[in-house]
Amino acid sequence: MKNQESKRMNFVSFIVRNYKIIAMIAIVLMLPSVYFLVYMTGGITYSFSHTMYIPIVLAGVFFGPEIALLVALAAGILLGPMMPLDTELAIPQLFINWFFRLIIFLVLGFISGFAAKRLRLSSEKIRSLMAYNQETKLPNTNYLSCAKAQFSHESYAVFTLLINNATNIGDVLGMEIYHKLVHQVYDDLQASFPKKSLIIQADTNKIWLAKPYYDLNLDAQLILKAISYSRIINGIPLYVDFSVGAGLVHDGTDCQKLSTYRVSDASARFAQENNLPYVVYDDSLIRKRSEYDLLATFTQALADNETFLVYQPKIDLETLKPIGLEALIRWQHPEKGTIFPDQFVPIVEETKLIHNLTNWVLKRALDKMWEFQRMGITMGISINISAKNLYDPQFYDRTMQVINESNVAKHLLELEITESVLMINPEASKTMLERFVNQGIHIAIDDFGKGYSSLAYLSQFPIDVIKIDKFFMRQIIQNNSAREIVKATIQLAKQLGYKVIAEGIEEEEVMKLLRTYQCDYAQGYYFSKPLNDQKIIEWIHQHT
Ligand code: C2E
Ligand code: CA
Ligand code: CA
Question: Domain of 104?
Answer without folding.
Answer: 2-130
